[in-house]
Amino acid sequence: MKKILLVLALTLSALGQAPAPPIGYVQPIAQAALGANGFSYTRIDPTGALYVTGTVGPGQSAISGYTTPYAPVALDASGNWHYLLVDATGALKTSGSGSGGTAFPVTVSGTVNSGGIPCFTSTTVEASSVLLTSNVLVKGGGAGGCPGNSALTDTGALLSYSGTTGLALTGAGAILSLPGPIEGSAIGSVLNVVGGQDASTNTVIGGLYLRGGSETGIGGSSSQAGGVSIAGGNNAAVSAVSQAGVIEITPGLSTGATQGLQGLLMVQNSYVKGGGTSTLWNLQCWTAAMTVNDCGASPSSILGVAESVNSNTVQVNRHGSQTPINASAAVTLGHTVCAGATAGTVTDSGGTGPCATGFTVGVVLATSGTWALPDLTSFTATTTLPLVAVEHVGLTGGITFDTSATGLAQPTVSSTWTYPVGTGLTIAGGSQAASVSGLMLSGNAYTAGTATTNFPLFSIWPSGATGPTTWSASGTYFGINSASGFGGDFLAFHNNGGGIIFNVAVGGNATISTSYQSPLYRASAVGTAVIYQSGQDSTTTSTGGGTFRSGSITGGSTNTLSTGATILQTGDNSSTGTGETTGNLTVRSGNCGAASGACIPGTTTILGGGFTAAFTNGAGSDLFAEGGDGTGNAIPAHVWLKTPGFSSTSGSTAQVEATNYVVLKKSGGTSSGSGTTVFNVTIGASQTYALEVLVHFETTQATPQNCSSFERFLAVGQNTGGTITSQIISEAPSVATICSTGTLTMALTNTNANPSVFTVTPTWTTIVPTATIITAEVHSMSQQDIANLGD
After folding, report:
1. pTM of the model
2. Dihedral sign for Cα atoms in the order 47, 49, 55, 60
3. Spatial contact of 719 and 685, defined as CB atoms under 8 Å apart
4. Is the pLDDT of residue 446 over 70?
């Protein structure tokens, strides 16, 4: 170990100028003293050893206990030389005289402090410092003062600070590097880490930047930047009322009498910047693994808002942040904003409720004010860059969770929750208000796939159920797919704990209870039709049939019971307007709609009720075909029986319906010999007609006197090249007449025109009728149709 050199230069100007350093020695060199034989020096030789040149001193020899080299320093008042020495252990010592060294400790005079150190309190005064406490670091006293104790204590295991005004690191890039934790000074104490210093000043107060260590080079496969973990304290206590540490992150408060802007909470995630565009304060959407770019129009979900856009990364303010967002047009303070039709930006919903187009992102908090951010950037809120509390980021699948509810964590885009047996997930909707649903499911049905992949927007799908391949290719909003073996209901509606009002069973049967009122099926809007259809339309298989009936009594009860009546009718019309009508009622079998093939139209059968069991002498019910009831002397309704007319020409031309049977009633004249037209027949080219016509004519008068006649006529006609010829005969034996006075005869005539018009002409004597009625029953045996001529 190299010897320690202490060079003390004493300038002895009275003794003259020292000569140059001896040859063969290196600096440093110090003039020590002028002896009888010349100057003595201390110096270091080429080997690093301390040596003395010249003589030891007048008549002096080596000092006992010390090895050479040594050097005389000064001659005291008693004539003794004092030396600078290095002993055998390498320690630096001073001697009292040439004949020996001074041993420590040295007794001094004056006032000194045990545990203190010598110090200069002026340029000429040396004093003692205060007691320097064990393990306490020393701090300088400055001009006129001695070093003293600092507020830092270093035990070797813990560096502690006992000050009350804070511990500051100053200077650009100042770093505090510690091998262990920074702890409070005692159990129960609170450790405060403050950025900058508290002050009353019109300037920017310092902030706090807390981060892990950064990799500043190119690194390698094992390179990993330092993380930051913020955790509340754990609690291993066994008491049920003990508590673990709570984490509370609170923005700063503006608390002055005239309040300024409140602090903001921004929570960020870091992402790779994708190949597209990422714009500062635009909505950011997922594009690839941990990669984002500006969202397109009407996104189904977002990841947040770009707070910082770098060359290859984007820092995104996520759900729960208060952040500015670019708006496509001016927004209103307090309104909700939507991820709507404009890419990357939000739009005003027009109010404070949920968005009708796109999902709700949040609420506008401010449209003015400038905020400085900890990353040394700032923004100014405007109506097109509003400050927004981000409440929703949307979810693929359409569910929006309101995390304002205590304890409800924000799910990820593909979140799946699995709950133990006996528990479940309850989503409690908020309080409902005008134009606000308590719980809303928004989104669009998927239509871009197939009948196998177009899953419903909302579905109930038990575990183990086989996936359908028959979803609608046009999309489905709500779907249920039951598992094999399930025998219950898809849907069941109850009222306040009562029985089932309406249910749809797993087999497809729908049942409506009459416990509350008779079932009512009707169209959803005025002017729309209702179609009752059994089975689904198909192009490849036979379709199901249907039964429209009232309920049956299936048990063996001996009570007096009856089954319900079934009424099939069109709607009534209670309007007082002119030209009002009610709907027509048509009962028919299905048509064949193809232009080829061997389809046979269905048969329509209308039956009265009968017996299906071996009941002795049971009487079947009547079948009534009735026209509707009119009022007063309006023309009565008629019952028409029609079948298609036969055509002798082969082809695909549709057959024309022709009347086979009808009973016509109308008013006749009140003058004898006055004819009344009753019906006509249109004759097709090269066609004929044949009719059996039964006519009843009756008269009444005020006295009263009545007269009635019934007669049977046969009529035939033809159309040959547009020329109509006909013949009518009366079956004279088929005439019956009765009059209270006078006589009555009838004639049936027709015109040889197309159509051919048939007229009834009565002739009577004596009686003076006040009204007459003509009833004609027409039985057609041809392919020509009959038209009623009315009153």
Report:
1. 0.41
2. negative
3. yes
4. yes
